[in-house]
Amino acid sequence: MISERAGVLLDAFQSIDRAVSGEGHVEPSVVSYIQRLQQALSQPEPLTLQIAKQLHGLRGKEAYLFTGFVVPGLYPEGENDGPLGTLVLARALHLAGLIPMIWVDPQLLDNIMWLAAELAVSVPIKAIDLAQLAECRNEPAVVIAIEKPGANDNGIMHTFAGLPVSSGSISIDALFLEWNAMGTLTMAIGDRGNEIGFGALREQVVQWAPGSTDCHCGCTGGVAATTPAQFLLPAAVSNWGAYGVAASMAILARDKRLLLTPAEEERLLRVAAVRGCVDGICRRGVYGIDGLPGATSVALVQELQRIAQRAMSEESE
Ligand SMILES: [Zn+2]
To answer: What is the Å distance from ligand 1's center to 85 Cα?
Structure first.
């Protein structure tokens, strides 16, 4: 029955939204913040369903994925949050029939190649070059920013702790605004509110994350990002949001090859750690993500796999 099938699917996507909010995996205060942000956007359908449906409709089209959070002295070669999710989502898009291309800050290029090899992802990966991007800005049907710093009202990008990202990550805010204006589909995944895409929820970030109104660079603009995306997925960890979108696409495409496996997540986190992609909270290369143990991220991946596999098997019954 169609209605029964729709019910099974709706339940699965709601579970994926909840999983990527960190429910059962991270501190309740974080889950509550992320779920409130999600709820501000998730009508009438779960966010991961909205996003996966859009992407599913773009088979044969180009998708540009952006990642890289580089801060000299803190994360000279970027964080491990962002690149892993970007590769997993690019693999899913490729398997679903889209034509993905990954753009990263130049400082990340070497590391993301290692991670791509570990995951056997064979999509083009390029260093962000604003002149080159300006020339090919008509090509993508969708652009997706994953854990990419976004500028505040004064045009300054910050870490969530309030440090300016000067001479680190290249700002792609202007390009994103242009894509929004051109009608190119824009999507973003972030986990705090200082990333590109959160412009759509700026008021909520300022209200619900009081520390976001402060920064330590004297610009007085706070850390909340102002550039919106048409589709934004707030997640407890940005990688998790990207894994959730991949799982959602696996369900829509009925193809479990799109899913990240727990064993792959473990290997990716270990490669990232030895390559110097640091944990954004403890600022060292460790087997973990955003201050959480690596095992937590592996458990989250396992939960997404379970949700997607159950939806696919119930659907085929
Ligand atoms: Zn500032």
So the answer is: 27
